[in-house]
Each structure stands twice: as C-alpha cells, then as structure tokens.
C-alpha cells in the first residue's frame, strides 16, 4: 500500500510517466535489490504484495483494507510461493504479475479520466515501446543473444576495454567496424537495429553512446554504470565484474 500521496496523473503523458516510475521501482526490486526483496517476502507472514511507486521505489506490504481499493491491487500472496520453486522462476512469476498490474493501473487512470480511443492507443504504444518487467528480469530481450557476438578482437580483452570509455563500453551486440561499401548498407541497418535493442539489465532503458556501461562477467548482461554504482575509474581496477544479482545469488549458495 502507498503511504506517501502522489499526484494523480490525468493526461496520457502523466499516466505514462507514472507507469515508468512504478516499472523502474519493480525492476529495481527484482534485480538490484533482489536480496532485500527476497528477505522481505517471508512465507511465514500474511499475504504480501509488491508495489512499484511512481517515484521509482518499491515496497512489500499488506494489501489495502478498503473495498474496493482506490487503485487496482498487485498479485496477492507472492511470499507464499517463494520457497516452493526455484528463485529465478519465482522472480519471473512475480515479474509477470507485476507487468499485468502496471497495465491495469495505467488503464484504470485512462478510464477514470475519460481517455478516448486515440488516447488509449497512444498510451498503449508508449508502454509497448519499453521492455516489460519480465523481459528485463529474465533477459528475454535480444540483449543476451547480441552479447554472444564479440567485435573483432579477443573477447576477454574487449570486455576489459569496454569498461574504460563510453565508446568502448558499447554492448557486445553493437558491432564496431570499418566503414562499409554501398552494397553493404543493409548490414549497417541491421547493426543500427541491434544497437537500439541493447538494454540495461537494471533499469531496462536503451543504450546511449554518451553513457558509461559495464558488462557482468557471470550473466553477461550490460548495465549503466550509474545503475550499479560503478564509475569508469572504479572499472579500471575490476578484473572480473559481478552485477548485484549475480553477487547476491552466489552469497546465498
């Protein structure tokens, strides 16, 4: 339940910004803060829900008591399934229900404030342009496959050099090569598409050439340096980088 009041979105842009904030909070809970999230979902407690908040934070709490609730409620009792399945499967299940909840909240606002057909369509298109929580949590986006193709040099050297500069921190699926002849223009377009599909494993946002990125040596997902609190200076001293999710998993083993 949301203890802090947030402005009620009334336009398509405001509803989408609300959606993005809640989505960012949910992704953070299921990736960066997965250890904390796991501990809060104690099966011995009552029915618990995972809430994403508009300010990009999250909380695990009991459902609201009022009936009907002011907003659609997330999946109830996520904590009961925690110890009955593999952790990655449990996180994937929570992610799927989180996506359903995000859509229900967004279109609840649309219905409440009388969005017409064109406004509903525009809202859905804006939402559909970003990866789902499930895609980010499971790595179902193209990112994992693209990272398996390393450009030109030895993969180990490329991965180390990728942490040094914004240009060299491009995900492995983004190919850097010499200028192409005119008859190879089709290949260049495919490479541009691959660049657009590179996504941060923490926030799910697209790759940008002016941002520092770092690759996890365990799961091979790429992250914004700011999302995992790694600067280019810190990266110079890291031989093998492990993202927060991989670090937490190994700590529990």
From TrEMBL:
Q: A GO molecular function for this record?
A: zinc ion binding
Q: Where is the composition biased (Polar residues)?
A: 146-163
Gene3D superfamilies xrefs = Zinc/RING finger domain, C3HC4 (zinc finger)
Cellular compartment(s): Nucleus
Q: Name one GO cellular component term.
A: nucleus
Keyword Transcription regulation belongs to the record = yes
Entry keywords, A to Z = Chromatin regulator, Metal-binding, Nucleus, Transcription, Transcription regulation, Zinc, Zinc-finger
SMART domains associated with the record: PHD
What biological process terms from GO does the record include?
Answer: chromatin organization; regulation of DNA-templated transcription
Stored PROSITE patterns: ZF_PHD_1, ZF_PHD_2
Stretch list, region Disordered: 144-193
Which top-level group of life is the source organism from? Eukaryota
Q: Where is the composition biased (Acidic residues)?
A: 181-193
Q: What are the PHD-type domain coordinates in residue numbering? A: 197-249
Task: Please report which protein family the annotation says this sequence is part of.
Answer: Belongs to the Alfin family.
* Domains: entry comment: The PHD-type zinc finger mediates the binding to H3K4me3.
Q: Quaternary structure per UniProt?
A: Interacts with H3K4me3 and to a lesser extent with H3K4me2.
Q: What does this protein do?
A: Histone-binding component that specifically recognizes H3 tails trimethylated on 'Lys-4' (H3K4me3), which mark transcription start sites of virtually all active genes.
PANTHER family, from UniProt?
CPG BINDING PROTEIN, PHD FINGER PROTEIN ALFIN-LIKE 6
**Under what name is this protein listed?**
PHD finger protein ALFIN-LIKE
Q: What is the source species?
A: Erythranthe guttata (Yellow monkey flower)
Identify the taxonomic lineage of the organism of origin.
Eukaryota, Viridiplantae, Streptophyta, Embryophyta, Tracheophyta
